[in-house]
Write a structure and sequence with these properties.
The protein is mostly helical and 424 residues long. It has helices spanning 10-19, 38-49, 53-64, 89-92, 109-119, 123-147, 173-177, 191-194, 203-218, 223-229, 237-256, 262-275, 306-309, 315-328, 358-370, 374-391, 411-419, and strands at 36-37, 76-77, 234-235, 289-290, 396-397, 404-405. Bound molecules: alpha-D-glucopyranose.
Length: 424
């Protein structure tokens, strides 16, 4: 029996966003993540859009204050010093002002800008803001398609599990096993002082991912060298799908704003579509690809449904994904578990190895609607609503019973609940 959480109201969701506002940018959660995170801000902007257009645009402007000269938009912008997070700016050592991390995150921002441009109440400001952001978005897309796809293969390279935003997926086990850990950071971690260790990644994982940061630092964070030389190089199915959708959305913006770059964007879309088949496993599911070993990931994750969000597949593949979704749902009570519930490493409480994340649900449901599977999208929305009402705006949720996990008062959970109308 679900108990309606008295905290899960539109007003409490707005209060969380306001409380996590640090003056123009919003922290995902004040204790565990006290800085601005890239893709979190894309969803947070949608939350603000429901009650304060101006603040929504401001969120994105703050993020782009961290954009690098080569176009990259970093995954963390450390606007102001804050306690409680490892690795902080001094560890990344990127020498950017404001200080930032050295990797990116899935480019949901472009799609958020398109929604703001179309849906914001103040039409004049929407045109002005979208026009001002357009060249910055374009530079970021070029960075993905050029710096992060040096061979112009149509598949972009990710160099760090944190870049995927789905940090400890089973997809990263094999590519990370090939990274020789050169340091022991277990005593430096702060995440496990805030959240149960069994809901967080292992020490071994942290030692390896921090080794990657050291490798990139030794290359002076040179984008071209990082893309070719880091000992972790994968094509993340999530990033690839989100980028492809972002390319479509950038194209729509370019047309609306009469920007003469539609031909260039069409070129990217053609390359991505041609390469997409490299991410299909023999069973028809979609996977991440280890670019060093050439192996597809052995696990199926919730990103297998993301080609629908990218509009990257035909009707037959979409029907196969709808059948796969129904199979998954025979094993769990709440959609959508982050990893295939029949996978041996499925772990319903650990971060990206099983729990439900509302932002993924929002994108997966969007994809199913686009292909005419409204009943599946409704199911995902209904489940999202039920878990928020039961557990509030937690970071992630157990797909067996909807119990909240990770950090509480999470900005993107509150924002998606507002934008998706889960609290009405
Ligand atoms: C975790 C998530 C990542 C998110 C960040 C801030 O690291 O895995 O996707 O951006 O928290 O919420």
């Amino acid at each position: 029996m679900l108990i309606r959480n008295p905290e899960a109201t539109p007003e409490s969701a707005r209060t969380i966003l306001r409380r996590n506002d640090r003056g123009g940018y919003t922290v995902p959660n004040g204790r565990i993540y006290p800085f601005q995170w890239n893709w979190d801000s894309g969803f947070v902007a949608l939350g603000y859009l429901t009650f304060d257009d101006k603040r929504a645009w401001q969120e994105l402007d703050a993020l782009f204050a961290g954009q690098w000269d080569d176009g990259m938009v970093p995954h963390i912008v450390f606007h102001k010093p804050a306690e409680g997070y490892y690795p902080g700016p001094e560890i990344w050592g990127t020498r950017h002002a404001p200080p930032t991390s050295g990797i990116s995150q899935p480019p949901v921002i472009t799609s958020a800008v398109l929604r703001l441009f179309r849906e914001a109440k103040d039409r004049e400001a929407a045109g002005k803001n979208a026009r001002a952001l357009f060249p910055k978005l374009l530079a970021w897309h070029r960075w993905w398609h050029e710096t992060r796809d040096p061979e112009r293969s149509g598949l972009v390279t990710s160099v760090h599990p944190w870049e995927s935003g789905r940090d400890n997926l089973p997809d990263w086990d094999a590519p990370l096993a090939a990274v020789t850990p050169k340091l022991d950071v277990s005593a430096l971690r702060k995440d496990i002082t805030h959240v149960n260790a069994d809901e967080r990644p292992s020490h071994d994982f942290y030692n390896r991912v921090m080794t990657l940061v050291e490798e990139a630092k030794a290359l002076g964070w040179n984008g071209a060298r990082v893309a070719r030389e880091l000992s972790f190089r994968v094509c993340d199915l999530g990033i690839q799908c989100i980028l492809m959708r972002a390319d479509r959305d950038l194209r729509a913006l370019a047309e609306a704003l009469s920007q003469p770059v539609v031909g260039e964007i069409d070129g990217w879309l053609a390359q991505e579509s041609a390469a997409f088949g490299r991410l299909v496993a023999p069973d028809g599911s979609f996977r991440s690809l280890d670019l060093r070993s050439g192996q597809l990931s052995p696990a199926v994750t919730a990103a297998t449904f993301m080609p629908l969000y990218a509009r990257a597949v035909d009707a037959a593949a979409a029907s196969a994904l709808a059948r796969l979704f129904e199979q998954w749902m025979t094993r769990v009570a709440f959609a959508v578990p982050s990893t295939d519930p029949s996978y041996p490493g499925f772990d319903p409480q650990r971060y990206w190895r099983g729990p439900v994340w509302l932002i993924m649900n929002f994108m997966i449901a969007d994809g199913f609607v686009a292909y005419g599977f409204d009943h599946i999208a409704d199911r995902i929305r209904r489940d999202s609503r039920a878990i928020v009402r039961r557990s509030g705006f937690m970071e992630y949720f157990d797909p067996r019973d909807g119990r909240g996990l990770g950090g509480c008062d999470f900005s993107w959970s509150a924002a998606i609940a507002l934008y998706w109308g889960l609290l009405d």
